[in-house]
Amino acid sequence: MHRYIIKRLIMLIPVLLGVAFIIFAIMNVAEGDPVYQVAGPDATEEQLDALREEMGLNGSLIQRYFRYIGNLLRGDLGTSYISRMDVMQLYLLRLPNTLRLASIAMVVAVIISVPLGIVAAVNQNSWKDTIAMVLALLGLSMPNFWLGLLLIILFSLKLGWFPSGGAEGVVSVVLPAVTVGVGLAALLTRTTRSSMLDVLRQDYLRTARAKGVSENNVVMHHALRNALIPIITIFGVQFSNVLGGSVLAETVFAWPGVGRLVVDAIDQRDIPTVTGALVMTTMLVTVVNLLVDIVYAYVDPRIKAQYTK
Amino acid sequence: MKKFTQVLSVLVLVCVLLVSCGGNKKTSATVSSAEPVKTAGTSTEAGNVKSAEISKDVKYKDTVVIGVANDITTLDPQGSNTDANMMAFYLTHERLVNVDPDTNQVIPGLAESWTVSEDGCTYVFTLPADATFTDGSKLTAADVKFTYDKAKNSSFASQKVADVKSVRVIDDTHVEVVLSKANQDWITLMAHGGMSIMSEAACTANPEKGPYLGSGMFALDEWKPGDFVSFVRYENYRKGSAPTKKIIFKLFKEASTRLIALQTGEIDVCIDPSTTDLERIKSDAKLELVQTPDVVLLYIPMQMEKPGLNNVHVRKALAYCADKEAMVLGGKDGLGTVHNNYINRGQFGLNPNIHVYEYNIEKAKEELKLSGYKPNQLTFKIMVDKEFKKTMALIFQNACAQAGINIVLDERETASLKGSLNDAALDYEMCIYQFTDDLGTDYTLRNQCGSTRQADGTLKKNGSNRPNMKDAKFNEMIDKALVETDPEKRKQMYYDAENYLDEVCPMIPICTSYINIGVKKGLAGAVWKPDAKHDYRFIAVPEN
User: Fold this and answer.
1) Could you give the CA distance from residue B346 to residue B350 in angstroms, rounded to a whole number?
2) Chain B residues with CB inside 8 Å of A82's CB?
3) What is the DSSP code (8-state) at residue B473?
4) How far away is chain A from the Cα of B28, in angstroms, using its nearest Cα?
5) Sequence-ordered list of residues with C-beta below 8 angstroms from that of B450, at least 6 positions apart, any chain
6) Distance (Å, rounded) from C-alpha A268 to C-alpha B83?
7) φ, ψ at B354 (rounded to 5°)
8) How many CA atoms lie within 13 A of B378 on its CB side?
9) Residues with pLDDT less than 70, chain A
10) Could you give the CA distance from residue B441 to residue B482 in angstroms, rounded to a whole number?
């Protein structure tokens, strides 16, 4: 198992190098010289040249890429063109907010989706199933910025229970987490339902029932555990997506997360911030994927046996 | 039962959608002329709006929260020119001079007074003996010299001190600034946020954060980029401390959320609410709407070195195709004022009798004929980066098509559009762009249409000269106006310069719009400026 984890961590290196190159190339082929974006309107040719040197814009794309990778290995993601702040510092300032939002949104999603999916599967083709699927469809179809605005109008403006924006205090995360969580819950509900339906048809469950095991026990212990693999997969994918930033929800709720950092940086063509934040997010997503693989092993002993071979 | 539940589910879904899509009856406000609008506060001759005076009978809050749409990106006065940053510099720093919000005249700022030599080239400023930075350290003439010398190397401030030949410290409270030539607008430039006086000691000790220290009424408290920045009152400010202890600029990118935050009381000021939400502010008893014409001029620059656009008749034909009224109505919901001048409203020397390229397709066709080009022979790309600009461009495109000129819309992200405009290659033809100018007529004309002679004798366009106009005659006209001491003669010179621009037709001015701000009722002490660089030093918001 340990060897497997180490192997996966080593595989992270080429992934990061590749991602960094793709992002770096895309950002650098966009029109215009970034130095004009940074320099003020009064900049002289000498100042532009000095700035170009300072910003590391001299040399070919490949030279600049390797220079960037060299700095990356030292933990230096560069300096923001706009705020002139260290990109790592900017990223780390936003990361706790993103982790907080992502974690709570996932908890919201799981709390909604797993019970709903199980109820839908156990009562297939009944009114309970229909309602669960309509709710899932609603969650999937509603744009989360729209849901966010509805929640703000109801819970901030009308009832005054939660702040409309910002990341101060414990309660500030509730509305954005519900907004993001509801969207995520929709897919998880459908996945839970279909996965449970597959498992519920298996012979071993019929055997369990024949042996007198209660229906609750059959569903919760025998069926759910075996249905978890696809659910965990979707959970991992969704968690990774939220880590990359829920840009719309972050914008609507004035939530200072990584997603908005990246979007604002793209808008200002702040190449070091975009590249740095995306590289860090890639790293985080890869680690989450690894954790998901490890969880597979604990859920399904057959997979653990494969890892330990 | 199964069918019933399915029908019921669908009905619930439809109801939810209908309820949430429903809204107010009609929320857009339309103002289609430059006439004064009803605003909270008093409009001044200079175009600013002053909130109510602070009353001794009212209890004010300790903290005022301002909901802003744009993040503050730096607290170094020589590190940026954006409106969002300027508002912070006005709190934390002082300039030698200020601009009077009532009259637009230059008045003392940090400097108590100043003298000017007869030739207009030497200024001596007198500083207060008790001036201190917000860390308590003394501010002296040496700090002024340090700031002005530093500005020479700043790409955001160097043009403002381009005419400064030398700065000499006479003593702690006197500093002499010598200009290489008389410059009637120079003193106005010194009121710009970029010329905020910084502490030499702080900047030397910490070049990154040292510039944040100023001698203003507030000091930086906490800054979380992308979230908020807060400033605390400097209790020992020599002219008396500010009425509010703490001012917070909180970033709300989304306009609807920003307004809701104002309605719920999370913020006290909502900058730039959506125009569709203005009626909500007007109808809310707890809120007031500040509305005043802005000085952000929307215009279409025509890159004068591009084939076709290098022909003055083609440029004039395009100018006649601009249905500005329709563009304001379509793009700005009527919330704008048609503009025909090349300098901004309210600036010295604005020519009231300028020739107007009124919307006239027949004249456009005549000009196209004079150009030698045939109908539909020319196709130009126009870059746009916002939805309202796209609407304006579509109206323009339609008119140009009638005149026989093809216009292709080139939709961009803002960063991409700016990238193309700022790139040395100047690989663009037209765009819809804007400029805000509060730095005097010379700065506007020089920056927008002027050029500078290079060592090899060629002309190079100045910073924001989007039409890429390189015209020695025009440069000479504004050079002469800059040194003219007789105000009437100088005014006439600017009239002539505008008339000349009208002949050359490097750009098509379209309109200015409106500044909209939602505030808590009873808010006092703020000065709302048409250039959006609002002054919050004396802001106070009543409790409850």
Assistant:
1) 7
2) 73-74
3) H
4) 19
5) B461, B462, B465, B469, B474, B475, B478
6) 15
7) -65, 145
8) 31
9) 30-33, 37, 40-43, 245, 304, 307-309
10) 9
Average pLDDT value for chain B: 88
Whether residue B368 has pLDDT greater than 90: yes
Q: Which residues contact B386 (CB under 8 A, 6 or more apart)?
A: B414
**Is the Cβ–Cβ distance between B322 and B357 less than 8 Å?**
yes
B139 and B215 in contact (C-beta within 8 Å)? Answer: yes
Mode of pairing for the β-strands spanning B269-271 and B514-520: antiparallel
Cα–Cα distance between B1 and B7 in angstroms, integer?
A: 10
Please tell me whether the interface predicted TM-score (ipTM) of this complex is above 0.85.
no
Closest CA–CA distance from residue B129 to any residue of chain A (Å): 33
Q: For residue A218, what pLDDT is reported?
A: 81
pLDDT digits over B58-108, tens only?
899 999 999 998 888 889 999 887 778 888 999 999 999 998 888 878 999
Question: What is the DSSP secondary-structure string of B373-397?
Answer: PPTT-EEEEEEE-SHHHHHHHHHHH
Cα B517–Cα A143–Cα B271 angle in degrees, nearest 5: 10
Question: Which three-class secondary structure string do you get for chain A?
Answer: CHHHHHHHHHHHHHHHHHHHHHHHHHHHHCCCCHHHHHCCCCCCHHHHHHHHHHCCCCCCHHHHHHHHHHHHHCCCCCECCCCCCEHHHHHHHHHHHHHHHHHHHHHHHHHHHHHHHHHHHHCCCCHHHHHHHHHHHHHHHCCHHHHHHHHHHHHHHHCCCCCCCCCCCCHHHHHHHHHHHHHHHHHHHHHHHHHHHHHHCCHHHHHHHHCCCCHHHHHHHHHHHHHHHHHHHHHHHHHHHHHCCCHHHHHHCCCCCHHHHHHHHHHCCCHHHHHHHHHHHHHHHHHHHHHHHHHHHHHCHHHHHHHHC
Picking from B315, B335, B317, the residue whose alpha carbon sits closest to that of residue B325 is B335
Partners of A79 on chain B (C-beta within 8 Å) are none
CA distances from B73 to A135, B202, B206 (A): 42, 20, 18
Test mutation, A42, A81, A124, A268, chain B, max B CBs within 10 A: A42
Q: Supply B360's token pair.
A: 């006239």
Q: Is B241 helix (H, G, I), strand (E, B) or coil?
A: coil
DSSP B199-231: -HHHHHH-TTTGGG--SSSEEEEEEETTTEEEE
What whole-number distance in Å separates Cα of residue B494 and Cα of residue B485?
Answer: 13
Pairing of strands B451-453, B459-461: antiparallel
Three-state DSSP state, B482: helix
User: Do B315 and B302 contact (CB within 8 A), yes or no?
Assistant: yes
* pLDDT recorded at residue B185: 85
Q: Which two tokens stand for residue B10?
A: 């669908």
Strand partners, B67: B250, B270
Using the structure block, give the residue that is written with the tokens 């300790």: B62
Which of B4, B21, B73 to mutate: most A Cβ within 10 Å?
B73
Residue B357: partners with Cβ closer than 8 Å, 6 or more residues away: B316, B319, B320, B322, B340, B505, B508
Contacts with A252 from chain B: Cβ below 8 Å: 254, 256-257
Alpha-carbon distance values, B19 to B14, B132, B283 (Å): 9, 59, 22
CA distances from A48 to A42, A87, B422 (A): 10, 22, 12
In chain B, residues 117-156 whose CB comes closer than 8 Å to chain A: 153-156
Residue B274, judged by CB atoms within 10 A of its CB (0-12, 13-18, 19+), counts as: middle
Residue type, A54: E
Provide the angle, in degrees to the nearest 10, between the axes of the packed helices B2-21 and A127-141. Answer: 30
Alpha carbons within 13 A on the beta-carbon side of A144 = 24
**Residue bearing tokens 């339902």:** A193
Q: Of chain A residues 145-184, which have a CB less than 8 A from chain B?
A: 145-146, 149-150, 152-153, 156-157, 160, 163-167
